[in-house]
Amino acid sequence: MFSLFYEPFLLAVSLTVLCFFVALFSLFRPFSFRFSLTRFTPPFNHCNCAASDSEDSVPYLNGSVAEMMEISPSPAPVVLADRRSGSSMMEELVPEITTHALSYLDYPSLCRLSMTNSLMRKAANDDSAWKALYHKDFTLEQNSVTPTNGWKAYYAATRAIAIVNTEFFNILRDKSIPAMRRFWLNADYVKCVHASGELFLGYNGVMRGWQLVFNWDQGLNFQVRDVRARVLTDMAWVTMKTFLDMDTGPFYVTNVFEFHSGRWYMVHHHSSVMNGNVEQQIMHG
Known about the structure:
- This protein has 285 residues and is α+β, with helices and mostly antiparallel strands.
- It has two domains: 75-141, no CATH class; 152-284, Nuclear Transport Factor 2, Chain: A (Roll).
- Helices cover 54% and strands 16% of the residues.
- The chain contains twelve helices and six strands.
- It has helices at residues 2-48, 65-69, 75-87, 89-92, 95-102, 107-113, 118-124, 127-137, 150-174, 177-183, 202-214, 278-284, and strands spanning 191-193, 199-201, 223-231, 235-243, 251-260, 263-273.
- A six-stranded mixed β-sheet has the order 2-1-6-5-4-3.
- A hairpin with a 5-residue loop joins strand 1 (191-193) and strand 2 (199-201).
- Helix 8 runs parallel beside helix 9.
- The protein starts with a helix and ends with a helix.
- Residues 31-87 and 277-285 have low confidence and may be disordered.
């Protein structure tokens, strides 16, 4: 009799305990799952937040979504790669087109271009570009010349001689014997032929000749035209036309320089005039 009631009771207790554990497990499982999501989800969301369409992705204009999801690469190399690929357009141009484009630049612009980056420096240092600039700024007479150190170095040397030649006419305008003494090489082989036809030999003789020219009352403010320069390693000569006023014809002038101790010195000056009287020639010197 007792056994008849005992078995259903035991079954009911077992079912009750089983239901209790099932309910207890169901109660704690969502909390544990939510806790695990709260704990481990943020790193995953942190990697994908930059891939959204929000305004936060604007600073990464040079990177794709796949690149931004990778943690190890930084955006900087991507930006540099884009800059390099953009600059390489200069290399992709036909050389003739590149030379033609660079021929529109003047000396300061071409120098600034050569200091931007390696690709621009390569283009700006191209020999053809400096040859074109030389012909534009100086003369076409030396088209067949092949400078030993390239056209860029030849341009720089010619520009230096042009500046020295301009200094000579500044000394004439100022009538400065001390400056003229520093300008000429102190040697016995220097020569000076004035427009009067008089020849002065040696350093002291040349200085004496310029003193005679500076004693004239008329100013010596010349207009210089058609300057042509030829530069070698340690010697250069410059030919030009000079005008004292519009009533007299041009004076044809040749200046010869030698390079000593890091600077250019005048060693020869020759001046002549195609028309005008002797007095005008003497006044020119």
